[in-house]
Specification:
By secondary structure, this protein is of the alpha+beta class. The protein has 3 domains: about 120 residues, Response regulator (Rossmann fold), CATH 3.40.50.2300; about 110 residues, no CATH class; about 120 residues, 2-Layer Sandwich (Beta-Lactamase), CATH 3.30.450.30. It is about 45% helix and about 25% strand. It is built from 14 helices and 16 strands. The strands form 3 sheets. It has a 6-stranded antiparallel sheet. Helix 12 packs antiparallel against helix 14.
Length: about 375
């Protein structure tokens, strides 16, 4: 019986790039192509059996991050490889946190891409979020099974590490900056992220770099962690103080201060940030506002943007199209302005980013912060 060929969708606004990748991967898979977000969605809704999407991040209008969010919500089993010419740790981290299984930079090495695609589609293994269990508990479980495996780890900052082991024997441990024992202690100190476990081949097992047991590394790692907490406690600012949660704003009456903190954290994560504000739609009054451009006054513009949303609500009602607005996008020659209504509220977040910014990435970061914005809104 002939093995069924995998089906891959390639998305890039550069037709030459799409054709090049399609031509190279065509010997291995059935390749579909799209040159925009809209065309990609149409293809995914029409075609059955797409198992992998290879998408450029930066495209006009809705981009690769928007496509990644759509896939996560509508086709969660489809694997995604993100490609960009504008790589950075923050982009890599955000892509991986939101479901991209691989991240590659242009110019593409087509041979490496083929190897990556085959590895994703043919590899047997499992992955899950580290927040679902202690990473050291996972390692002990893998040790008990006795299987030879590679554990690939990515933390929430996009940093990566790798551990090769069989039973209690550790073959190697690597991060981008360390190898051996110190790499192991670095990995187990990470707070949150994801991991993927895959079998080791006999050839890989022969490339041993360490003669250390997992039991020793786990005990030593625990000892170092305890000593680290003890040193914090002795050093002026104790571990308990260092990990103190923010005060409950409902009790302190400092809702606005909490919202300010969230907005400032949000501001630091958004590339090419200009300004942002949280505004009541009905009165057009900003609760909080911040700007990195002294010529852009978000508190002044807030009331006008609230009117824009109310006018659009009236238009939808008159046309009897749709029940609610999710967002409005305004584009000028200098910046994008995204007006996003916070779910189940009468508040919106207005975000201005420079024209060279990435709208899809901004939307994804906003989605990440949405719950925190909602929690910090004033009570009705």
């Amino acid at each position: 019986m002939q093995k069924r060929r995998p089906k891959i969708l390639i998305v890039d606004d550069e037709e030459a790039m799409v054709f090049s990748v399609q031509d190279y991967l065509g010997s291995y898979a059935d390749c579909l192509s799209a040159t925009s977000y809209e065309e990609a969605i149409s293809m995914l809704e029409k075609e059955e059996g797409v198992t992998l999407v290879i998408s450029d991040i930066r495209m006009p209008g809705r981009d690769g991050f928007d496509l990644l969010m759509w896939l996560r919500e509508n086709r969660p089993k489809v694997r995604v490889v993100m490609i960009t010419a504008y790589g950075s740790p923050s982009v890599r981290s955000l892509a991986k946190q939101n479901g991209a299984v691989r991240y590659m930079e242009k110019p593409l090495d087509l041979k490496q891409l083929m190897s990556t695609v085959r590895g994703i589609l043919e590899r047997k293994g499992f992955s899950m979020a580290i927040k679902d269990m202690e990473f050291t508990d996972l390692l002990q479980f893998l040790s008990f099974t006795g299987n030879a495996v590679r554990v690939q780890v990515t933390n929430t900052l996009g940093e990566e590490g790798e551990i090769g082991l069989e039973g209690d024997d550790v073959f190697w441990v690597r991060t981008s900056t360390k190898v051996g024992e110190e790499a192991f202690y670095e990995i187990v100190s990470w707070e949150g992220g994801g991991f993927e476990v895959t079998p080791l081949s006999e050839e890989e097992m022969s490339k041993r770099e360490m003669e250390t047991s997992l039991s020793y590394l786990l005990l030593e790692g625990a000892r170092r962690k305890d000593e680290g907490l003890l040193l914090e406690a002795k050093g002026g600012l104790g571990a308990k103080e260092k990990r103190e949660e923010p005060k409950d704003d409902k009790k302190s009456g400092a809702k606005e201060n909490s919202l300010t903190v969230v907005l400032e954290e949000f501001k630091r994560e958004v590339p090419n940030f200009i300004a942002a504000e949280v505004v009541g739609i009905d009165d057009g009054i900003p609760i909080v506002a911040t700007s990195s451009d002294p010529t852009f006054a978000p508190d002044v513009a807030a009331a006008y943007y609230a009117e824009v949303l109310k006018v659009n609500e009236k238009a939808l009602k008159a046309l009897q199209k749709g029940h609610r607005i999710e967002e409005v996008l305004l584009t000028t020659d200098e910046f994008y302005l995204l007006l996003r209504i916070l779910p189940d509220s009468r508040f919106y977040l207005g975000l201005a980013i420079a024209k060279e910014g990435n709208l899809g990435m901004a939307r994804m970061i906003l989605k990440k912060y949405e719950a925190r914005f909602l929690e910090s809104l004033p009570a009705d």
